[in-house]
């Protein structure tokens, strides 16, 4: 299953303060471990909300508000997209992540991503067999 | 009860993350995967007894490794053969201890250990099924129960298979090393075969309540990505990763709402996972950059998959390139199924006559005599050429050969459609 792991903004990240070389290295090492384990699909950091904008929807009415936004702790500063066996495995992995806002209180949020398998359909043996046989079909082999 | 379940799930998570490195490191020390795995499990049990009261150490992996290695050394000390050997060279046990200490101290090269473990788990002395099971167990961190469910066999059967595999390895005295020179290519292809087998076990059932089999695709992809990090100079490893990423990208589009399979031509390409496609194309690029000479079968298959992935609509498919790639694939595999695929690509690129000519040659293969897809494809080509009576008899023949009811209905429908004027 796939999880999006969300890092919250901090006063530093909102102020556009870049990580120190040591922090970069520590986070880089953690990311390397995720790659080595074959679980990292994508990851990015987000610039401060001062460089962003929000579009408010009220029915058909849209209002655009430029950043920065005030509620720092609720903002997103970066994400990982990872493939894990379970939420527990994801938690276990990211407990090892260096603190994203060194010296400060923050949290990392883990959310499961919707996937095709989340349909929960009845998958009868007949259907499975049909899939298996059709797998051999010419087009599917390519 | 809830506590027990939570603990159990936490154990699983720690095991999944730590076990491959632990087992690999311990195998280097003790030279036996079976014993190494037992030692790793013992260490995990010790951790789960101690951590709740003493707190989880800062580096759980290192804690487990130290604990397991301490036990490994105890075991080595108790080992009679070892003692005798020590006596033979005229030193006592105490004097030899620094050597063990040195072995324990060197924690580097864990990547090399993992790679060695891959080659042990996929050693040719084992059957393909045993290799797959052992790889999932040692490298994937899966429980025996999970592997049994994945391969649809009872748990005791799978447990037995794994025990037997470990014994076979011990008996054959399989060295804990990465093969070199010419042997490397052959052994690597056996490793890749196992990973792709695991992927295909999962790919045959991509939806529904049978959660374990789709998860096998993820396991195989994970193993493939690990392998690509461990052996970054091998184009076929990146080729296999590319192939699996691109195939996995179609998972959501491959079955309809009632679980019915949807062929490539009819898939809703908007449902293809673009993230996986991008990853697949990037892996293929890495493979191509490393190729020295002719591309291998996985790179070729990935290239074919990439042609489909790049086509935004089915009509945009570059069939000429696909036909060309199949020609090269046929050279390396000499498989009639590959030839059949090539015939389809040829007919898509140059018209049904070209494809038909190749099919006629294929009829001579004994394995193709009763293969329903041959008359099915032939019927399709003939229908496109307007030779309806011949097409009809081919579809009927295909219907008589298939053992699948759903498919038979489809083929008989096609046969019936051939009676009407084109």
Automatic annotation (TrEMBL), chain A:
Residue stretches making up the YCII-related domain: 1-111
InterPro entries associated with the record: Dimeric_a/b-barrel, YCII
Gene3D superfamilies the UniProt entry points to: Dimeric alpha+beta barrel
Pfam families from the UniProt entry: YCII
Stated family: Belongs to the YciI family.
Protein name per the record: YCII-related domain-containing protein
Protein source organism: Kutzneria kofuensis
